[in-house]
């Protein structure tokens, strides 16, 4: 989804596909900067929504997910060794998809923009 646009159901399907592809590259030790950047955004948005009460079970996964993404950013081939972090990231992405489905698209779009701009919605 691009800044300044609103999410559609089709956009969210494409986003989920991209997240899963990025996760697969991370698991293979081949995460590119674009993969890490996209996954970091998902963690940020998911954590923001969880703090607002939408899927709070995400919060314990944020630390390990961020840790594996930090490793992947500097040493992609070492990231798969952090099995706890990889598992947390995979679970967080699944829960984030549920968070997306739990709110109307307009609310999800507002949450994305708020999280990326570090403000409440």
What is this structure, in a nutshell?
The chain has helices at residues 9-27, 33-51, 59-74, 83-102, 105-116.
Question: C-alpha Rg, in Å?
Answer: 14 Å
Find the count of extended strands (DSSP E, 2+ residues): 0
What is the helix content? Answer: over 70%
Helix vs. strand class: mainly alpha
Largest sheet: none
SS field, number of helical segments = 5
Q: What form results from the Cα inertia axes?
A: globular
Element order: H for helix, E for strand: HHHHH
- % residues in beta strands: under 5%
Span from first to last CA?
18 Å
- Low-confidence spans: 1-6
Estimate the mean pLDDT confidence: 89
Overall tally of structural domains:
1
Written account of the structure:
The protein has one domain (9-116). The longest helix has 20 residues, at 83-102. The chain is globular. The protein is mainly alpha-helical. Residues 1-6 have low confidence and may be disordered. It has helices at residues 9-27, 33-51, 59-74, 83-102, 105-116. It is 71% helix and 0% strand. Helix 2 (33-51) packs across helix 4 and helix 3 packs across helix 4 (83-102).
Task: Reconstruct the topology from this structure.
Layout: H1 9-27, H2 33-51, H3 59-74, H4 83-102, H5 105-116
Helix pairs in contact: 1-2, 1-4, 2-3, 2-4, 2-5, 3-4
């Amino acid at each position: 989804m691009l800044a300044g646009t609103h999410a559609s159901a089709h956009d969210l399907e494409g986003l989920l596909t991209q997240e899963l592809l990025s996760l697969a590259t991370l698991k293979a030790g081949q995460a590119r900067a674009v993969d890490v950047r996209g996954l970091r955004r998902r963690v940020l948005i998911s954590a923001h929504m969880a703090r607002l009460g939408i899927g709070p079970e995400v919060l314990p996964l944020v630390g390990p997910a961020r840790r594996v993404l930090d490793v992947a950013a500097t040493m992609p081939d070492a990231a798969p060794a952090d099995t706890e972090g990889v598992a947390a990231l995979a679970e967080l992405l699944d829960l984030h998809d549920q968070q997306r489905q739990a709110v109307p698209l307009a609310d999800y779009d507002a949450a994305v923009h708020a999280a990326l701009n570090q403000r409440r919605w």
